[in-house]
Amino acid sequence: RFAYVNGRYLPHDDAAVHIEDRGFQFADGVYEVVTIVGGRFADLEGHLARLDRSLRELRMPWPVKPTSLRLIMRELAARNGVRDGMVYVQVTRGVAPRDFRFPADTAPTLVLTCRRSRFQTARQLAEGVSVITIPDIRWLRRDIKTVGLLAQSLGKQKAAEAGAYEAWQVDPDGTVTEGCSSNAWIVTAEGTLVTRPASNLILNGITRLSLLRIARDLGIPVEERPFTVAEAHAAREALMSSAGSFALPVTRIDGKPVGEGRPGPLTLRLRAAYLADVG
Ligand code: PDD
């Protein structure tokens, strides 16, 4: 297995960054996860556009030109022989003596890893996955895809310990913001697809954006609005979306079945359409 670190392809086990990298000390970095499906990058343009936005919001320069990053991503996937999996891209502000303020002239650190993955198991697809709900304890710039993921890590660990696949984070007003590494959706009793609008309170998922476009193309009624946990419990279907989970049926929330407790037809239709679109 190979990784990429600042201009070099290295055996994955030998790849390293300096102990004073600001990603390590301040989570002063951003990232993207891009799925490779059948040898093709899913939603690559969207992920590069969001990386550009994240970098801009944190006033960080591109570490290499976007066209070079595309080539590095392809080269790394090829060197690893990955046709179904993910590429992880991380940019930090770089290495500098520890100081909260930005260093004056430090080159960013660019790291890429790549791995094969099977995405979902047959069982997850046949039965759907379960989620728990937890308070959203994150900061108020969740729209930036930073490597500051401690709240999400705690949430996912809690989910795992509860035998669940994901944790949906809930703001103090009772509305679901999003999962720890995915966006959250429901289908109402009337058949309307609902997901929270993009704002500083969620990460605007690239898969989310593609699913919204696909749903509108298919003539499915869509509403971008917050929904509560109670509404999710009463929904006909629930689903989550992310790079790698695509559109994945959520069939239990806090131990209670959603609808009939089986993957819903609209979710499965969206998933198939998404995969046909990228694959
Ligand atoms: N996570 N919301 C959060 C908080 C996320 O971390 C992610 C993605 C998403 C979905 O975004 P997208 O559709 O662009 O993947 C929503 C990635 C997969 C991760 O951290 O591994």
UniProtKB/TrEMBL annotation:
Pathway(s) served: Amino-acid biosynthesis; L-valine biosynthesis; L-valine from pyruvate: step 4/4; Amino-acid biosynthesis; L-isoleucine biosynthesis; L-isoleucine from 2-oxobutanoate: step 4/4; Amino-acid biosynthesis; L-leucine biosynthesis; L-leucine from 3-methyl-2-oxobutanoate: step 4/4
Cofactor dependency: pyridoxal 5'-phosphate
Catalytic activity of the protein: L-valine + 2-oxoglutarate = 3-methyl-2-oxobutanoate + L-glutamate; L-leucine + 2-oxoglutarate = 4-methyl-2-oxopentanoate + L-glutamate; L-isoleucine + 2-oxoglutarate = (S)-3-methyl-2-oxopentanoate + L-glutamate
EC number in record: 2.6.1.42
Domain of life: Bacteria
Keywords linked to the UniProt accession: Amino-acid biosynthesis, Aminotransferase, Branched-chain amino acid biosynthesis, Pyridoxal phosphate, Transferase
GO cellular component, one term: cytosol
Coiled-coil regions, chain positions: none
GO biological process: amino acid biosynthetic process; branched-chain amino acid biosynthetic process
Function: Acts on leucine, isoleucine and valine.
Entry similarity comment: Belongs to the class-IV pyridoxal-phosphate-dependent aminotransferase family.
Protein name: Probable branched-chain-amino-acid aminotransferase
Record organism: Rhodospirillum centenum (strain ATCC 51521 / SW)
